[in-house]
Amino acid sequence: MSNNIWSIVLLGILLFLTFSGCTTTTDEPAVSNNDVLFQTSTIDSLIAGSYDGDMQVRDLKEQGDIGLGTFDRLDGEMIVIDGEVYRAKADGYIYQVNDTATTPFAAVTFFEADDTITIGSNTDYASLQSMIKENIPGPNLLYALKIEGTFENLSIRSVPAQSKPYRPLLDVVAEEEAVYHHENINGTMVGFLLPYYIENINVPGYHFHFIDANKTVGGHVLACNLTSGSVELDYTYDFTLSLPESSSFSDASSEDKDTLKAIEQ
Q: Domain of life of the organism in this record (predicted)?
């Protein structure tokens, strides 16, 4: 084949690549997937006493703007709301959290409400859960929840920081939990409704932490009764689990589901 023919063939190939778009780039930004529940560590390891913080708060905030968890040495309940992380300590009060603080267990997502439910008067904890269940598409998705309202009464708890050798979580809760009761308080419950198949990794069913509107008090929700409010639901379709590198995690032994039920209640 002559050199002229090779030149014509090469020119044709270059023209094809140019006009087919193979050599061009697009300025459109990549679409991120916010429907992801991100979690560090597992609930079973926390129950077994794996309390050493592994992930820094600054890294956790890159994975979501709403959620819950705890802190290094089990020092208080974590509330993540509007991209900020708060600590409800054993004294029942809320404290700001430094980005270098660490967590042994937490779950977060970027919240985008897919549905909203209006809460009527005299809605207790059981009625609230039933109302949510009746309005979700089905039991097998992961749901992030934000409940804002006026609480006629509210029971919350937290636990103090632990020292090594760490005891199992059930023992800590039974012996050291601090429970606080509030009346006529405005605030927000953040948490998750997770399917049965998540057990051993996270808490199946409902799990909520509370922070008041003034960001002064908060903790793990034990019971509540609302006079008014709303539930925002974010349907979540993907799950990412990050496992700690700490020896306390790798050595932790699993617990049965009855232990988790006793702790959550």
A: Archaea
The domains of the chain, with CATH numbers, are 36-264 (3.30.1330.80)
CB 198 within 8 A of CB 122: no
Residue 192 and residue 143 in contact, taking contact as beta carbons nearer than 8 Å:
yes
Q: How far apart are CA 23 and CA 95, in angstroms?
A: 53
Task: Pinpoint the alpha helices (H) of the chain.
Answer: 3-20, 43-48, 57-61, 125-135, 169-176, 247-250, 257-264
Give dist(CA 229, CA 16) in Å, integer. 61
Cβ atoms of 131 and 165 within 8 Å: the answer is no
Structure tokens at 127: 């009625």
Could you list the pLDDT tens digit for every one of the 265 residues in the chain?
444 444 444 444 444 444 444 444 444 444 457 899 999 999 999 999 999 999 999 999 999 999 999 999 999 999 999 999 999 999 999 999 999 999 999 999 999 999 999 999 999 999 999 999 999 999 999 999 999 999 999 999 999 999 999 999 999 999 999 999 999 999 999 999 999 999 999 999 999 999 999 999 999 999 999 999 999 999 999 999 999 887 778 777 766 667 766 777 6
Taking alpha carbons only, the member of 169, 255, 203, 218 closest to residue 37 is 203
Q: Which amino acid is at 94?
A: I
Q: Which of 72, 74, 76, 77 is nearest to 53 (CA)?
A: 72
DSSP, residue by residue, 112-160? --SEEEEE-SSEEHHHHHHHHHHHSS-TTSEEEEEEEEEEEEEEEEE--
Q: Are 26 and 227 in contact (CB under 8 A)?
A: no
